[in-house]
Amino acid sequence: MAVQGVIVPVTPLVQNCTLLWEESERRATVIDPGGDVSSIRAALDEAGVAVERILLTHGHIDHAGGAAELSQMFGVEVWGPDRRDAFLLAGLEEQGRMYGIAGARAVSPHRWLAEGDSVPIAGERFTVLHCPGHTPGHVVFVSTAARLALVGDVLFRGSIGRTDFPYGDHAALVRSIREKLFPLGDDMRFLCGHGPGGTFGEERASNPFVGERV
């Protein structure tokens, strides 16, 4: 199967809303629609794909603020994250006021996700890993067959997710990366919530927060 995709930068925080689909089916999964729904819809129209499902890695405004509107617009379900982020999803409108992001709506997922669940994305089966630290209910989607991980704000190229929130946990975030992500293999590619992606091997070798030299 040929996985196709496009990244749509959304919100003033420049979050990577990711659209993935299988070439022959042309039914897209939308991961982390944080806002700017008109831009997401334009990207879908340009690609000529229909929306199949919305997935959320966690409950922050720049990742989930447009999920309710997009779900209603296309009549599709929202899955994820882990229910430990329920308080964040319920408070999306308040988060929007705090960060100056208009139009955010609270969302209640049709399905909460948990460690070990499996979700279909672009013709592949992705396993759900619960990777807390940035938020309590953050999840990551991993396909060992496609050698691809969608890591949200857990890991970035040369950095890691913030943990300076009242509910953040730096030690838990480091464990999530070192004990759940890195063991998947150095060749595993990742797409993240901000900035360019990379491979786990590159981060294992050189990331100043979780690399082997730390």
- What would the average pLDDT be, to the nearest integer? 96
Structural class: alpha+beta
Radius of gyration: 16 Å
Global geometry? globular
Low-pLDDT regions: none
CATH class term: Alpha Beta
> Approximately how much beta-strand content do the residues carry?
25-35%
Q: What topology, given as strand order, has the largest sheet?
A: 6-7-8-9-12-13
Question: Could you state the order of secondary-structure elements as H and E?
Answer: EEEHEHHEHHEEEEEEHEEH
Characterization of this structure:
The chain has 214 residues and is of the alpha+beta class. The chain has one domain: Ribonuclease Z/Hydroxyacylglutathione hydrolase-like (Metallo-beta-lactamase, Chain A). 26% of the residues lie in helices and 27% in strands. It is built from 7 helices and 13 strands. The protein has a 6-stranded mixed beta sheet. A 5-stranded mixed beta sheet has the order 1-2-3-4-5, with helices on one face. A two-stranded antiparallel ribbon has the order 10-11. The chain is globular, with a radius of gyration of 16 Å.
